[in-house]
Amino acid sequence: MKIKLQVIIETDDGQMETIQEVAHLERGCLQPAELGLTLVEAKTLLEGVQRAMVDEQIAEYLAGQAACSHCGKKRLHKGAHAIVYRSLFGKLKLHSPRLFHCGCEPQLSRTFSPLTELLKERTAPELFYLEAKFSALVSYGVTAKLLEEVLPVGHEINSATTRNHALKIGERMESALGDEQVLFIKGCERDWEKLPRPDLPLMVGIDGGYVHSSEQTSRTNSWFKVIVGKSITAEGSSKCFGFVNCHDLKPKRRLFELLKSQGMQMNQQVTFLSDGGDTVRELKLYLNPQAEHLLDWFHITMRLTVMKQFAKGLGAENCEARVSALKELESIKWYLWHGNVFEALEHIGYMEMEADGEIITGACAGKLRKALDELHTYIERNQAMIPNSGERWRSGEAISSAFVESAVNQVISKRMVKKQQMRWSKRGAHLLLQVRTKVLNEELRETFDRWYPNSHREAARVEKAA
Ligand SMILES: [Zn+2]
């Protein structure tokens, strides 16, 4: 059989009808692979349908520009040039005429190109959308291959253009985010009291991860830090965020907007749990008057567990020291769990004295000493953030953001550190993180709809369903 595919375009008033042939298909004796459309046919069809549509749309648009909108006099032509527009369904070469402005009104220039002015971006929003979405999930190269395989995008799509486009979207998100502020707390206590009763506390876990740098200048800076976190409402809905700390100019704004989008009010309690690093501590300040900043129990217990392993490894020859170290570590954990930093530091001190006084041998002794030293500094520096976890735990309050570990994994590991050879510039990593978190939070489509309003995007689906 022969299948002829045509596009019929009717003008709004029903006066004109254009018929364009798009493709001819042939089918013989039915083979499984010949039922319906092949990928190549589908791509040809899509490209053809769009071409026919675009021709008419452009013709209609330019016809509307042919005469002066003020006096109706025909505008004169001053030549034309071709513009290239990249869409999901092929590269379009469009004929863009240059017209003289009518003399009936004063104008800034003598001529103008209506189509060039209409299509300021030479890439279709839908192409931007898919490039950004898939780049957030898989590599730029795979994204380009995927789009090329399933859509008639043309052969010019490659990992470099995909990367450029995805980062451009990231940049646009960045400029849509308001300026950084020192203080985000608005109003005063009396205003906050008038606010409606807030939801239960928001819990924000913040942690860091490392990605491989492409801007390495010495052996020590081959990695850079990425801050990642997750914010969870009492109902359990969560959103993640991420940024490259040494590149980001508005981390507080970022976090503030995220919490606001989750309904944060100034009279609502927000609990921040972190590992207590300096950057993180600084970042969280001034976001909310009811904020409490706590050292994540998860990070304390991780350190103690590692130290316990070292203590166990002290060996039979250090039996006495081993028993004593394990006992002390238990005490330190107990005091920290109850928020008794003073006693915990005392016991860390005892352990340090013991370690100095005795002659303990073996690799584990050295490691234990080093870890003890680090724990001392860590607890001392973060003592203001160590709560009575036992009490919090009994009353059902958050003590640990172990869930952030999965956020680190979800936000950066899967896309950015899976392969050792993946190297990132700080800017590239930061911008891609913005796109990636939008995708993970399921907000990318919404963002695009805001940027490119299109009343027909959903209409087709609705019509088909009806
Ligand atoms: Zn005129």
What would you note in describing this structure?
It is a single chain. This protein has 466 residues and is α+β, with helices and mostly antiparallel strands. The protein folds into 4 domains: 1-65, no CATH class; 125-176 and 447-465, no CATH class; 189-296 and 401-424, 2-Layer Sandwich (Nucleotidyltransferase, domain 5), CATH 3.30.420; 299-385. The protein is 47% helix and 17% strand. It has helices spanning 39-65, 114-118, 125-137, 140-150, 159-176, 189-194, 251-261, 278-284, 297-312, 319-337, 341-357, 363-381, 389-394, 402-417, 426-440, 444-451, 459-465; strands at 2-10, 17-26, 77-87, 90-100, 111-112, 202-212, 223-232, 238-244, 270-274, 291-295. Strands 8-7-6-9-10 form a 5-stranded mixed β-sheet, with helices on both faces. Strands 3-4-5 form a 3-stranded antiparallel β-sheet, with helices on both faces. The relative contact order is 0.10. The structure holds zinc ion. Zinc ion binds next to loops. Zinc ion binds at residues 68, 70-71, 73, 102, 104.
